[in-house]
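Input (structure):
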Protein backbone atom coordinates (compact mmCIF):
# COMPACT_ATOMS: atom_id res chain seq x y z
CA UNK A 1 0.00 0.00 0.00
CA UNK A 2 2.88 2.36 0.86
CA UNK A 3 4.48 1.67 -2.52
CA UNK A 4 1.17 2.42 -4.23
CA UNK A 5 0.75 5.72 -2.37
CA UNK A 6 4.29 6.72 -3.25
CA UNK A 7 3.59 5.88 -6.90
CA UNK A 8 0.42 8.02 -6.84
CA UNK A 9 2.30 10.95 -5.28
CA UNK A 10 5.13 10.65 -7.79
CA UNK A 11 2.65 10.33 -10.66
CA UNK A 12 0.76 13.47 -9.64
CA UNK A 13 4.01 15.39 -9.38
CA UNK A 14 5.07 14.22 -12.84
CA UNK A 15 1.66 15.02 -14.39
CA UNK A 16 1.68 18.51 -12.86
CA UNK A 17 5.26 19.13 -13.93
CA UNK A 18 4.36 18.35 -17.56
CA UNK A 19 0.83 19.79 -17.77
CA UNK A 20 0.76 20.36 -21.54
CA UNK A 21 2.00 16.87 -22.31
CA UNK A 22 -0.46 15.36 -19.84
CA UNK A 23 -3.45 17.28 -21.24
CA UNK A 24 -2.62 16.14 -24.77
CA UNK A 25 -2.31 12.58 -23.49
CA UNK A 26 -5.76 12.30 -21.96
CA UNK A 27 -7.76 14.41 -24.47
CA UNK A 28 -8.32 11.41 -26.76
CA UNK A 29 -9.40 9.36 -23.75
CA UNK A 30 -11.84 12.16 -22.83
CA UNK A 31 -13.22 12.20 -26.40
CA UNK A 32 -13.74 8.44 -26.23
CA UNK A 33 -15.66 8.84 -22.96
CA UNK A 34 -17.97 11.46 -24.48
CA UNK A 35 -18.74 9.26 -27.50
CA UNK A 36 -19.16 6.16 -25.32
CA UNK A 37 -21.69 7.83 -23.00
CA UNK A 38 -23.65 9.29 -25.93
CA UNK A 39 -23.78 5.92 -27.71
CA UNK A 40 -24.82 3.93 -24.67
CA UNK A 41 -27.47 6.48 -23.77
CA UNK A 42 -28.81 6.08 -27.34
CA UNK A 43 -29.01 2.29 -26.91
CA UNK A 44 -30.63 2.71 -23.51
CA UNK A 45 -33.12 5.19 -25.01
CA UNK A 46 -34.01 2.65 -27.71
CA UNK A 47 -34.79 -0.04 -25.14
CA UNK A 48 -36.74 2.46 -23.05
CA UNK A 49 -38.80 3.13 -26.18
CA UNK A 50 -39.38 -0.61 -26.56
CA UNK A 51 -40.80 -0.80 -23.04
CA UNK A 52 -42.98 2.25 -23.67
CA UNK A 53 -44.05 0.75 -26.99
CA UNK A 54 -45.15 -2.45 -25.24
CA UNK A 55 -47.05 -0.49 -22.60
CA UNK A 56 -48.67 2.24 -24.71
CA UNK A 57 -48.82 1.06 -28.33
CA UNK A 58 -48.12 -2.65 -28.23
CA UNK A 59 -45.67 -4.60 -30.35
CA UNK A 60 -47.64 -7.29 -32.18
CA UNK A 61 -49.62 -4.84 -34.29
CA UNK A 62 -51.08 -4.99 -37.78
CA UNK A 63 -53.20 -2.47 -39.65
CA UNK A 64 -55.63 -3.46 -42.41
CA UNK A 65 -56.80 -0.95 -45.00
CA UNK A 66 -58.06 -0.99 -48.58
CA UNK A 67 -55.55 -1.42 -51.38
CA UNK A 68 -56.59 1.35 -53.76
CA UNK A 69 -53.90 0.41 -56.28
CA UNK A 70 -55.84 -2.80 -57.04
CA UNK A 71 -59.06 -0.86 -57.50
CA UNK A 72 -57.62 1.60 -60.01
CA UNK A 73 -54.91 -0.55 -61.60
CA UNK A 74 -56.77 -0.99 -64.88
CA UNK A 75 -57.08 2.12 -67.12
CA UNK A 76 -60.38 0.85 -68.53
CA UNK A 77 -62.17 -1.08 -65.82
CA UNK A 78 -62.98 0.13 -62.35
CA UNK A 79 -63.01 -2.74 -59.87
CA UNK A 80 -65.38 -2.11 -56.95
CA UNK A 81 -63.30 -2.80 -53.85
CA UNK A 82 -64.56 -5.20 -51.21
CA UNK A 83 -65.64 -3.50 -48.03
CA UNK A 84 -64.86 -4.47 -44.44
CA UNK A 85 -68.14 -3.81 -42.67
CA UNK A 86 -68.84 -3.76 -38.96
CA UNK A 87 -70.33 -7.24 -39.31
CA UNK A 88 -66.97 -8.48 -40.63
CA UNK A 89 -65.29 -6.91 -37.61
CA UNK A 90 -67.62 -8.82 -35.28
CA UNK A 91 -66.98 -12.02 -37.22
CA UNK A 92 -63.21 -11.55 -36.95
CA UNK A 93 -63.51 -10.95 -33.21
CA UNK A 94 -65.59 -14.11 -32.86
CA UNK A 95 -63.07 -16.21 -34.77
CA UNK A 96 -60.05 -14.76 -32.99
CA UNK A 97 -61.08 -14.16 -29.37
CA UNK A 98 -57.48 -14.31 -28.16
CA UNK A 99 -56.49 -11.05 -29.88
CA UNK A 100 -55.90 -8.22 -27.43
CA UNK A 101 -57.47 -5.54 -29.64
CA UNK A 102 -59.49 -5.36 -32.85
CA UNK A 103 -60.28 -1.68 -33.28
CA UNK A 104 -62.27 -0.58 -36.36
CA UNK A 105 -62.10 3.00 -37.59
CA UNK A 106 -64.31 4.73 -40.11
CA UNK A 107 -63.35 8.27 -41.02
CA UNK A 108 -65.45 11.04 -42.51
CA UNK A 109 -62.94 13.57 -43.75
CA UNK A 110 -64.89 16.83 -43.73
CA UNK A 111 -67.82 17.59 -41.46
CA UNK A 112 -69.54 20.74 -40.30
CA UNK A 113 -70.07 21.26 -36.58
CA UNK A 114 -72.53 23.85 -35.31
CA UNK A 115 -72.40 25.12 -31.74
CA UNK A 116 -74.01 28.29 -30.38
CA UNK A 117 -74.25 29.91 -33.78
CA UNK A 118 -70.74 28.97 -34.92
CA UNK A 119 -70.18 26.73 -37.97
CA UNK A 120 -66.80 25.05 -38.08
CA UNK A 121 -65.04 22.45 -40.21
CA UNK A 122 -63.95 19.29 -38.43
CA UNK A 123 -63.87 15.53 -38.95
CA UNK A 124 -65.62 12.64 -37.25
CA UNK A 125 -64.15 9.17 -36.73
CA UNK A 126 -66.21 6.12 -35.84
CA UNK A 127 -64.64 3.85 -33.24
CA UNK A 128 -65.54 1.36 -30.52
CA UNK A 129 -64.37 1.10 -26.87
CA UNK A 130 -61.46 -1.01 -28.16
CA UNK A 131 -59.88 2.22 -29.41
CA UNK A 132 -58.70 3.11 -25.89
CA UNK A 133 -56.58 -0.03 -25.51
CA UNK A 134 -53.64 1.36 -27.48
CA UNK A 135 -52.03 4.78 -28.10
CA UNK A 136 -54.13 6.39 -25.39
CA UNK A 137 -52.21 9.63 -24.69
CA UNK A 138 -55.07 11.58 -23.17
CA UNK A 139 -56.73 12.47 -19.92
CA UNK A 140 -60.49 11.92 -19.95
CA UNK A 141 -63.21 14.16 -18.55
CA UNK A 142 -66.66 12.65 -18.54
CA UNK A 143 -66.73 9.17 -20.02
CA UNK A 144 -65.69 7.41 -23.19
CA UNK A 145 -67.92 5.50 -25.60
CA UNK A 146 -69.13 2.17 -24.26
CA UNK A 147 -70.64 -0.93 -25.85
CA UNK A 148 -74.16 0.24 -25.00
CA UNK A 149 -73.57 3.32 -27.20
CA UNK A 150 -72.23 1.14 -30.03
CA UNK A 151 -74.93 -1.53 -29.91
CA UNK A 152 -77.77 1.01 -29.77
CA UNK A 153 -76.28 3.41 -32.34
CA UNK A 154 -76.60 6.34 -29.95
CA UNK A 155 -75.80 9.86 -31.09
CA UNK A 156 -73.08 10.57 -28.57
CA UNK A 157 -69.55 11.78 -29.14
CA UNK A 158 -66.23 12.53 -27.48
CA UNK A 159 -64.29 15.67 -28.40
CA UNK A 160 -60.50 15.84 -28.51
CA UNK A 161 -58.82 18.89 -27.02
CA UNK A 162 -55.45 19.48 -28.65
CA UNK A 163 -52.30 20.09 -26.62
CA UNK A 164 -50.14 23.12 -27.33
CA UNK A 165 -47.80 22.34 -30.24
CA UNK A 166 -44.14 21.67 -29.42
CA UNK A 167 -41.53 24.32 -30.25
CA UNK A 168 -40.81 24.07 -33.95
CA UNK A 169 -38.94 25.81 -36.71
CA UNK A 170 -40.54 28.38 -39.01
CA UNK A 171 -41.10 25.81 -41.78
CA UNK A 172 -43.11 23.51 -39.52
CA UNK A 173 -45.14 26.45 -38.25
CA UNK A 174 -45.93 27.63 -41.78
CA UNK A 175 -46.97 24.11 -42.86
CA UNK A 176 -49.21 23.78 -39.79
CA UNK A 177 -50.83 27.10 -40.58
CA UNK A 178 -51.27 26.18 -44.25
CA UNK A 179 -52.97 22.80 -43.73
CA UNK A 180 -54.73 23.26 -40.39
CA UNK A 181 -58.29 23.52 -41.75
CA UNK A 182 -59.75 22.47 -38.39
CA UNK A 183 -58.02 25.19 -36.38
CA UNK A 184 -61.35 26.86 -35.59
CA UNK A 185 -62.65 23.63 -34.04
CA UNK A 186 -59.50 23.28 -31.92
CA UNK A 187 -59.94 26.83 -30.64
CA UNK A 188 -63.63 26.20 -29.86
CA UNK A 189 -62.89 23.09 -27.79
CA UNK A 190 -59.96 24.77 -26.02
CA UNK A 191 -62.02 27.79 -24.88
CA UNK A 192 -65.41 26.24 -24.09
CA UNK A 193 -66.52 23.62 -21.62
CA UNK A 194 -68.66 21.52 -23.97
CA UNK A 195 -69.05 18.46 -21.75
CA UNK A 196 -72.75 17.48 -21.61
CA UNK A 197 -73.69 19.95 -24.35
CA UNK A 198 -75.48 19.29 -27.65
CA UNK A 199 -73.59 19.85 -30.89
CA UNK A 200 -74.90 19.54 -34.41
CA UNK A 201 -72.77 17.55 -36.87
CA UNK A 202 -73.91 17.58 -40.49
CA UNK A 203 -77.54 18.14 -39.41
CA UNK A 204 -77.64 15.58 -36.58
CA UNK A 205 -77.58 16.42 -32.89
CA UNK A 206 -74.96 14.65 -30.79
CA UNK A 207 -74.46 14.81 -27.02
CA UNK A 208 -70.87 15.41 -25.88
CA UNK A 209 -70.28 12.73 -23.23
CA UNK A 210 -66.52 13.15 -22.86
CA UNK A 211 -63.54 15.39 -23.52
CA UNK A 212 -60.18 13.82 -24.29
CA UNK A 213 -57.38 16.23 -23.44
CA UNK A 214 -54.09 15.42 -25.16
CA UNK A 215 -51.13 15.10 -22.82
CA UNK A 216 -48.54 17.87 -23.21
CA UNK A 217 -45.70 16.87 -25.52
CA UNK A 218 -43.27 16.96 -22.60
CA UNK A 219 -45.36 14.36 -20.71
CA UNK A 220 -46.43 12.24 -23.66
CA UNK A 221 -44.81 8.78 -23.66
CA UNK A 222 -42.43 8.40 -26.57
CA UNK A 223 -42.80 5.23 -28.63
CA UNK A 224 -40.97 3.79 -31.61
CA UNK A 225 -43.91 4.08 -34.00
CA UNK A 226 -45.30 7.34 -32.61
CA UNK A 227 -48.87 8.41 -33.30
CA UNK A 228 -49.68 10.27 -36.50
CA UNK A 229 -53.48 10.30 -36.26
CA UNK A 230 -55.15 13.66 -35.78
CA UNK A 231 -58.42 12.91 -34.00
CA UNK A 232 -61.11 15.59 -33.56
CA UNK A 233 -64.47 13.93 -32.80
CA UNK A 234 -65.00 10.28 -31.87
CA UNK A 235 -68.43 8.67 -32.18
CA UNK A 236 -69.74 5.08 -32.21
CA UNK A 237 -68.84 3.54 -35.56
CA UNK A 238 -72.30 1.97 -35.78
CA UNK A 239 -73.93 5.40 -35.35
CA UNK A 240 -71.90 6.88 -38.20
CA UNK A 241 -72.80 3.92 -40.42
CA UNK A 242 -76.50 4.15 -39.50
CA UNK A 243 -76.69 7.89 -40.26
CA UNK A 244 -74.62 7.52 -43.44
CA UNK A 245 -71.55 9.43 -42.27
CA UNK A 246 -69.79 6.25 -43.39
CA UNK A 247 -71.44 5.08 -46.60
CA UNK A 248 -71.96 1.51 -47.74
CA UNK A 249 -68.97 1.61 -50.14
CA UNK A 250 -66.55 2.77 -47.48
CA UNK A 251 -64.41 0.12 -45.84
CA UNK A 252 -63.46 0.25 -42.19
CA UNK A 253 -59.77 0.27 -41.31
CA UNK A 254 -58.74 -2.23 -38.66
CA UNK A 255 -56.02 -1.77 -36.09
CA UNK A 256 -55.23 -5.15 -34.53
CA UNK A 257 -53.00 -6.09 -31.63
CA UNK A 258 -52.61 -9.86 -31.62
CA UNK A 259 -51.25 -9.74 -28.06
CA UNK A 260 -48.29 -12.07 -28.58
CA UNK A 261 -45.02 -11.38 -30.35
CA UNK A 262 -44.14 -15.09 -30.31
CA UNK A 263 -47.28 -16.11 -32.20
CA UNK A 264 -47.48 -13.03 -34.39
CA UNK A 265 -46.63 -14.79 -37.67
CA UNK A 266 -49.31 -17.41 -37.00
CA UNK A 267 -51.82 -14.67 -36.16
CA UNK A 268 -50.91 -12.85 -39.38
CA UNK A 269 -51.56 -16.05 -41.34
CA UNK A 270 -54.99 -16.41 -39.71
CA UNK A 271 -55.89 -12.80 -40.60
CA UNK A 272 -54.84 -13.38 -44.23
CA UNK A 273 -56.90 -16.55 -44.39
CA UNK A 274 -59.91 -14.70 -42.96
CA UNK A 275 -59.65 -12.02 -45.65
CA UNK A 276 -59.28 -14.58 -48.46
CA UNK A 277 -62.23 -16.66 -47.26
CA UNK A 278 -64.37 -13.58 -46.73
CA UNK A 279 -63.47 -11.61 -49.85
CA UNK A 280 -61.84 -14.12 -52.20
CA UNK A 281 -58.71 -12.07 -52.78
CA UNK A 282 -56.51 -10.75 -50.00
CA UNK A 283 -54.74 -8.44 -52.47
CA UNK A 284 -57.57 -5.94 -52.13
CA UNK A 285 -56.27 -5.12 -48.66
CA UNK A 286 -52.96 -3.86 -47.32
CA UNK A 287 -51.66 -5.46 -44.15
CA UNK A 288 -49.11 -3.19 -42.53
CA UNK A 289 -46.89 -5.39 -40.39
CA UNK A 290 -46.12 -2.92 -37.63
CA UNK A 291 -44.05 -5.43 -35.66
CA UNK A 292 -41.66 -5.66 -38.61
CA UNK A 293 -41.49 -1.85 -38.78
CA UNK A 294 -40.71 -1.71 -35.06
CA UNK A 295 -37.98 -4.34 -35.40
CA UNK A 296 -36.41 -2.49 -38.33
CA UNK A 297 -36.34 0.77 -36.39
CA UNK A 298 -34.86 -0.94 -33.35
CA UNK A 299 -32.17 -2.57 -35.52
CA UNK A 300 -31.36 0.77 -37.18
CA UNK A 301 -31.08 2.56 -33.82
CA UNK A 302 -28.88 -0.15 -32.30
CA UNK A 303 -26.70 -0.32 -35.43
CA UNK A 304 -26.19 3.45 -35.36
CA UNK A 305 -25.31 3.31 -31.65
CA UNK A 306 -22.85 0.45 -32.23
CA UNK A 307 -21.14 2.45 -34.98
CA UNK A 308 -20.85 5.34 -32.52
CA UNK A 309 -19.46 2.99 -29.85
CA UNK A 310 -16.85 1.73 -32.32
CA UNK A 311 -15.79 5.35 -32.91
CA UNK A 312 -15.55 5.80 -29.14
CA UNK A 313 -13.41 2.67 -28.86
CA UNK A 314 -11.14 4.02 -31.62
CA UNK A 315 -10.79 7.22 -29.60
CA UNK A 316 -9.91 5.15 -26.52
CA UNK A 317 -7.39 3.21 -28.64
CA UNK A 318 -5.84 6.45 -29.91
CA UNK A 319 -5.70 7.76 -26.37
CA UNK A 320 -4.08 4.53 -25.17
CA UNK A 321 -1.42 4.73 -27.90
CA UNK A 322 -0.80 8.34 -26.93
CA UNK A 323 -0.36 7.38 -23.28
CA UNK A 324 1.99 4.54 -24.28
CA UNK A 325 4.14 6.91 -26.35
CA UNK A 326 4.24 9.47 -23.55
CA UNK A 327 5.10 6.80 -20.99
CA UNK A 328 7.90 5.45 -23.21
CA UNK A 329 9.27 8.96 -23.61
CA UNK A 330 9.09 9.41 -19.84
CA UNK A 331 10.96 6.14 -19.30
CA UNK A 332 13.82 7.19 -21.59
CA UNK A 333 13.91 10.67 -20.05
CA UNK A 334 14.11 9.25 -16.53
CA UNK A 335 16.52 6.38 -17.20
CA UNK A 336 19.10 7.71 -14.73
CA UNK A 337 16.41 8.10 -12.04
CA UNK A 338 15.38 4.50 -12.62
CA UNK A 339 19.00 3.41 -12.22
CA UNK A 340 19.35 5.28 -8.93
CA UNK A 341 16.13 3.77 -7.58
CA UNK A 342 17.22 0.26 -8.57
CA UNK A 343 20.65 0.88 -6.99
CA UNK A 344 19.16 1.83 -3.62
CA UNK A 345 16.90 -1.19 -3.48
CA UNK A 346 13.77 -0.61 -5.62
CA UNK A 347 12.53 -3.82 -7.19
CA UNK A 348 11.41 -4.29 -10.79
CA UNK A 349 7.86 -4.49 -9.43
CA UNK A 350 8.27 -1.03 -7.82
CA UNK A 351 9.49 0.47 -11.11
CA UNK A 352 6.61 -1.07 -13.07
CA UNK A 353 4.11 0.11 -10.47
CA UNK A 354 5.40 3.69 -10.70
CA UNK A 355 4.88 3.99 -14.45
CA UNK A 356 1.63 1.99 -14.58
CA UNK A 357 0.08 4.13 -11.84
CA UNK A 358 1.12 7.33 -13.60
CA UNK A 359 -0.45 6.13 -16.87
CA UNK A 360 -3.64 4.94 -15.16
CA UNK A 361 -3.98 8.34 -13.49
CA UNK A 362 -3.82 9.97 -16.92
CA UNK A 363 -6.59 7.59 -18.06
CA UNK A 364 -8.69 8.32 -14.98
CA UNK A 365 -8.39 12.08 -15.43
CA UNK A 366 -9.35 11.73 -19.11
CA UNK A 367 -12.28 9.46 -18.22
CA UNK A 368 -13.60 11.82 -15.54
CA UNK A 369 -13.25 14.85 -17.84
CA UNK A 370 -14.92 12.98 -20.71
CA UNK A 371 -17.76 11.82 -18.47
CA UNK A 372 -18.43 15.38 -17.34
CA UNK A 373 -18.39 16.62 -20.94
CA UNK A 374 -20.58 13.67 -21.98
CA UNK A 375 -23.18 14.60 -19.37
CA UNK A 376 -23.10 18.28 -20.40
CA UNK A 377 -23.55 17.31 -24.06
CA UNK A 378 -26.23 14.69 -23.39
CA UNK A 379 -28.48 16.75 -21.13
CA UNK A 380 -28.28 20.57 -21.09
CA UNK A 381 -26.63 21.16 -24.48
CA UNK A 382 -28.90 18.78 -26.41
CA UNK A 383 -31.97 20.25 -24.69
CA UNK A 384 -30.90 23.79 -25.58
CA UNK A 385 -30.35 22.70 -29.20
CA UNK A 386 -33.83 21.15 -29.30
CA UNK A 387 -32.48 17.62 -29.82
CA UNK A 388 -33.98 16.12 -26.66
CA UNK A 389 -31.86 15.09 -23.69
CA UNK A 390 -30.15 11.70 -23.54
CA UNK A 391 -31.22 9.30 -20.76
CA UNK A 392 -27.82 9.16 -19.03
CA UNK A 393 -27.74 6.74 -16.11
CA UNK A 394 -25.25 6.81 -13.22
CA UNK A 395 -23.52 3.62 -14.37
CA UNK A 396 -22.60 5.06 -17.78
CA UNK A 397 -19.97 7.58 -16.52
CA UNK A 398 -18.66 4.94 -14.10
CA UNK A 399 -18.21 2.39 -16.88
CA UNK A 400 -16.66 5.07 -19.08
CA UNK A 401 -14.09 5.96 -16.39
CA UNK A 402 -13.38 2.25 -15.83
CA UNK A 403 -12.77 1.67 -19.57
CA UNK A 404 -10.49 4.71 -19.66
CA UNK A 405 -8.46 3.40 -16.71
CA UNK A 406 -8.24 -0.13 -18.16
CA UNK A 407 -7.17 1.28 -21.53
CA UNK A 408 -4.40 3.29 -19.90
CA UNK A 409 -3.37 0.28 -17.83
CA UNK A 410 -3.18 -2.00 -20.87
CA UNK A 411 -1.08 0.44 -22.89
CA UNK A 412 1.23 1.21 -19.95
CA UNK A 413 2.30 -2.41 -19.47
CA UNK A 414 4.92 -2.39 -22.23
CA UNK A 415 6.60 0.94 -21.28
CA UNK A 416 6.59 -0.10 -17.60
CA UNK A 417 8.13 -3.46 -18.53
CA UNK A 418 10.85 -1.64 -20.53
CA UNK A 419 11.57 0.55 -17.50
CA UNK A 420 11.69 -2.42 -15.14
CA UNK A 421 13.99 -4.35 -17.50
CA UNK A 422 16.73 -1.70 -17.42
CA UNK A 423 19.86 -2.90 -15.64
CA UNK A 424 20.90 -0.60 -12.81
CA UNK A 425 24.51 -0.22 -14.07
CA UNK A 426 23.36 0.62 -17.62
CA UNK A 427 20.72 3.03 -16.35
CA UNK A 428 23.24 4.88 -14.14
CA UNK A 429 25.60 5.37 -17.11
CA UNK A 430 22.76 6.96 -19.17
CA UNK A 431 23.01 10.69 -19.87
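Output (sequence):
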Amino acid sequence: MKALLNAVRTGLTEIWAHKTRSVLSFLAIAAGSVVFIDAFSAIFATYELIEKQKEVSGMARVKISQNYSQTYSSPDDYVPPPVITYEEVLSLREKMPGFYMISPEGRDWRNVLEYRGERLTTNVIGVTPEWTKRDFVYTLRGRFLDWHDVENKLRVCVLVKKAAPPPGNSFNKSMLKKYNFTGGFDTLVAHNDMLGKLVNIDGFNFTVIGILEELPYSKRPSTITGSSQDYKILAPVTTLIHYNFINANQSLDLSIDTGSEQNFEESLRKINNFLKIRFGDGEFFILENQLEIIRERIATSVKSALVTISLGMLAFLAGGIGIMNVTLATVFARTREIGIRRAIGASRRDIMLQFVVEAVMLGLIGGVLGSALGYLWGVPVKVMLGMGGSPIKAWMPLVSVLIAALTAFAFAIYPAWVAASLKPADALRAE
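Notes: The first strand starts at residue 61 and ends at 66. The beta strands are 61-66, 101-115, 118-127, 138-142, 156-161, 198-201, 204-214, 233-236, 253-257, 285-289.
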